[in-house]
């Protein structure tokens, strides 16, 4: 099991280092948020585990956020509730305390997935929502052609969807979530039609997978992508993505009902 980092980050990524300007690049996308709100149904009390800076927390419900990273807790906007310093694997709540629970872009950070999902199921009366990526679909992105090492790391960190559903149990629904062209949540695939954005070091830093590969990989990526954008190579191969309204990538919303 991973030990917590100096800022409290409990998973493999140290958000005290990579999360400094996280909210500049990772804003909740309304299209993705609609999927989450619909899946929450009529739940009034919602637990958000691995809440980070508060992305996708519904404003019309009573949300209890849990976030172990001090850096991420500090970036939560004032209109959102203060996050509790705790980890998924040891939630400080009684059984069935919440109508529903959610975990967005976080399960791949947990040091003990089975324990964390068991805890989130324990404290939830109703649905548990997990927004994650299907590791088998990550190669669909053009990023794989430019930084296969980064995609390989990402695929190795994201748990298989079957593993998540097995640990949650109950009635399972897995919803593909198409990514909009102007996606405001800057995970890697969000820039499928805006490749220039990936030349920004901050945009890459807001995607934790880059912190697990040698810096030379990013240097090679920037050099190759910059050159291909300048001479038209990228557009010759992927230019159609610049006007494609949605990208059917790896993003999935798992909804587990008891």
Automatic annotation (TrEMBL):
The UniProt record lists the Methyltransferase type domain at: 47-125
User: Per the UniProt entry, what are the Gene Ontology biological process annotations, in alphabetical order?
Assistant: methylation
UniProt keyword list: Methyltransferase, Transferase
Q: Select a single GO molecular function from the record's annotations and give it.
A: methyltransferase activity
Name the source's superkingdom.
Bacteria
- Provide the transmembrane region boundaries: none
Q: What is this protein called?
A: SAM-dependent methyltransferase
Ranked from the top, the taxonomy reads: Bacteria, Pseudomonadati, Pseudomonadota, Alphaproteobacteria, Hyphomicrobiales
